[in-house]
Amino acid sequence: MTDARRTLVRRNPWPEGVSRPVVPPLQMAVVYASDSPDQLDAQYAGKVPGYTYAREGHPNADHLATMIDGLEGAEGGLILGSGMAAVSVVLMGLLKAGDHVIGGDQLYGRSLRLLTQEMSRYGIETTLADCTSAAAIEAATRPETKMILVEVMSNPTLRLADMEGITKLANERGILLVVDNTFTTPRAYRPLEHGADIVLHSVTKLLAGHADVTLGYVAARDPAVRKTIYDFAVTTGMTPSPFDCWLAERGLYSFNLRFDRAQENARALADHLAGLKGIKRVVYPTRPDHPDHNRAGPLLGERGGNMVSFELEGGRAAANALTLAMPEVAFAPTLGDVGTTLSHPNSSSHRAVPAAEREAVGITEGFFRISVGVEEIEILIEDFTRGVAAAAEAAKG
Ligand SMILES: *Cc1c(COP(=O)(O)O)cnc(C)c1O
Fold first, then answer.
1. Is residue 385 part of a domain?
2. Would strands 198-202 and 307-312 be described as parallel, antiparallel, or unpaired?
3. Both 98 and 229 in a single domain?
4. Which end of the chain has the least Cβ crowding within 10 Å, N or C?
5. CA–CA separation, 332 and 319 (whole Å)
6. Which of 79, 108, 189 to mutate to test the pocket of ligand 1 (most atoms within 8 A of CB)?
7. CATH of the domain at 292
8. pLDDT in tens, 253-294
């Protein structure tokens, strides 16, 4: 019999056995006990493996990081509490007052805000430039430029960056090249293999894939940069929850399958939409009418991904009619879920962008972005055919 006075609060030992679980355990512990001060010293010195305090690292985060490292061809990647934590740790952990950074002018909205409104308070200046042209990036460089932050595919206009030209420029000038690979994923592009210094992800999106965790990932080629990133993340408390890491790992098992299926759907849906009355234009990177389609082959191996954007004829009334006619497709501003989601940048991600700027890149009231899921394609075609017909009707009236 166990003595309940001793075990109620101090906890019974975990049952041991000669077999091990097939699925990685979920380890929620915040603290780890060591045998002695000598052992703890050895742990901190890296002579023996072990954990101490979850903010500094825990097994579920490390196990997940190793999986994403494998996909990205990276080593020593770090999991963080969100994709924005990954962007923040790179900018705030590696730059100092007086440094200059170049960001893509169509980066994720919060990344733009971090660069233009937060980093400036710490004396770090930003120039935004058009990533589809390495010449535009080059024109923005200064002697004090320390970093270039780009996304391979822009949101929601799905333009492809000139990764070859930008990588060459960054490598030649010794500027750190940071690639947010959230939209393309390592299934379509592996930045470190092509010469980038740092790759980061919103794991929340396609990698975890089920719209139920918020997580980020970052990996650097240089071990010294990795160490700086790690220390900044631990000091500022960007720690992920073990449960989120465990869930993300579960999602990741099917990542390749989900990506391929969603991409196949996206390609078919884009072609279908292009043939419907009431559609002004469709944006999908491998379509011949896409402005960067010549880049899709060499850059992505024709892997256009799961995102499709399109523009309806008509304004807000047509846009409202579309979402109301297809209630089963979640009208929700995220991407990468197993199920298809639809977003309207003018009323969500881009609402704060001045109208003239939005229109200059083609983001009008009729503009939608689809994150295509893994449903059967017939269902998607039915839903969107109905939605676009309702929009066309509304545009007439
Ligand atoms: C969503 C997203 C982020 C931010 O990730 P969170 O996990 O929401 O913090 C960063 N970059 C891109 C390209 C994204 O789509």
1. yes
2. unpaired
3. yes
4. N
5. 14
6. 108
7. 3.90.1150.10
8. 999 999 999 999 999 999 999 999 999 999 999 999 999 999
